[in-house]
Write a structure and sequence with these properties.
alpha/beta, Arc Repressor Mutant, subunit A, D-Maltodextrin-Binding Protein, domain 2, 9-stranded mixed β-sheet, two-stranded antiparallel ribbon, 10 helices
Amino acid sequence: MNWDDIRFFSAVVEHENISHAGKALGVSPQTVARKITALEHKLATTLFIRHPRGYRPNADAMSLIDEVKHAEQLLNTLQNKFMNKSQRFMGTVRIAAPEMIAIEVLLPALKPFLERYPELNIELITGISTIGIAKGDADIALRLVRPEQGALTIKKVATMSSGLYAHLDHDFNSEHSRLIGWDTTIDLPAVHWLKNITGREANIRLNSLAAQRAAIAAGLGAGILPCFLAEGLVRLPQQIVMKETIWLLTHASNVSTPRIRLVYDEISMIMKKYSAKFDPIVQ
């Protein structure tokens, strides 16, 4: 039996008439009769005594109706729990974001939001690997590359500028100063920018932006950093414009899930408030 079987069977038991049952279900009497006959074939028994004025449930039907009522109560309970959960914004939302945007922007801004929705849980996935929205690895993602495929809801939420930075006391020489950057196995725009600006690859190669910022702040050399991470450092003159668009995306089917839509809109608002710090360079 499936949910359709239960609906049609219950309606005929209640009304003892296929016309009245059909009206209650919004279908024709012929559809009701066909569904009941198919159900009887499935169960290899007769459930109703047909007579000119209607369908009278027999002993097998009365035995089955108790089980059906129990199943209906269980389904209604599950439905009510889910609806209450959605309306109260309960459950987990998984967010994928670049590590330093998560640390410097999202996490500090989320406290008031989470205080308003105490039954909402956040799972934050960081790193440089692309997390698959379509595969269900995350519900929402912030990305620096716009996806070209997939049934996604995509929104531009910021433009992020980067510059060549060094410690205040660092005497930068484009030919001899040490350069700090990404491991060359990592294909990111900053790798190409550094080489285009200086004509060289990094001397100190690291696989996280946090480590690069720490190395530059320690005076070990100069490197490419997003401007919002460069407080206390000096930006060195360079001609290449280094800007990236930050995209907020979710699967199109997630937009109708209240808790995911709520978090999606909140992240969009956070990024908008932070936009001036993301893009302070006037070229």
